[in-house]
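To whoever picks this up:

The nightly regression suite flagged Phosphate ABC transporter ATP-binding protein PstB as changed. Nothing in the input moved, so I suspect the structure step. Input below, exactly as stored in the fixture:
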Amino acid sequence: MSYDTTSETDSNTESRPASETKDESLISTSIDVDGRERAPSAGDPIVETHDLDVYYGDEQAIRSVEMAIPENQVTALIGPSGCGKSTVLRSINRMNDLIDVARVDGAIEFDGKNVYDDDVDPVALRRKIGMVFQQPNPFPKSIYENVAYGLRIQGIDDDVDERVERALERAALLEEVEGRLDESGLDLSGGQQQRLCIARAIAPDPEVILMDEPASALDPIATSKIEDLIADLAEEYTVVIVTHNMQQAARISDKTAVFLTGGELVEFDDTAKIFENPEHDRVEDYITGKFG
Ligand SMILES: Nc1ncnc2c1ncn2[C@@H]1O[C@H](COP(=O)(O)OP(=O)(O)OP(=O)(O)O)[C@@H](O)[C@H]1O
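Regenerated output under the current build:
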């Protein structure tokens, strides 16, 4: 794995200057600017959780979760408020490491390697597994710099212009911002800001993109653009999305994981099966709005 090493820091916050994050041994030189060499293996598991428990202090938020997330598909995590969806999502790229009281037991394998092994560098891991948050959070910098930041923090300093342009294009934003990349990211609309954040997340060429309710702060038109974009991104990346919106999960995901109160994964299956003919009564009750 190319993310094996040891320095602990966070690639998804502004807290650390790019120069401090570089570990040349981590920096792959094989990233394609113009195209990817991904085998058309949609469906093979890329992330697998094994007996995953997550605790905040003495409180257990996630219980014995077993889940195999398929490559190049969209997997939705749904369930009532507080059931642990975000906790699971943050565990996958070790964002929970940033919460002092959080503790993880069990394993999460990414491409067959446990991301909680001692030799895994969380920063390098987050290059492979990027994240987009609920609130668009562009930096108070130019559109260009917002995307270039995603590269610099990972120590990538070659072909920056091309990589920025490609990320903006992949995030379906380039057409709208072409010719004004030096303008502030904060002057974009909410939906554009969120696509800018998606561009920032995909600029380092991750394999997996985690999205925590990426459209819940947006209006219906902006939401629809993000949904179209997610479907499009899944051709190239694996997308795992937390959503409160069951219609959205049904529209955009291939697989759905239903968590219920207590941090239990009750059912994980093809989205059509979950919404049309779930195995568990509790899931049916949740889907049909009897509770939650
Ligand atoms: N930083 C934290 N410190 C302590 N407890 C936390 C923390 N984050 C989450 N929890 C607790 O863990 C449980 C799961 O929370 P989590 O945010 O993962 O659920 P969720 O399903 O994503 O909820 P929501 O849909 O409301 O965002 C909850 O009981 C929550 O209070």
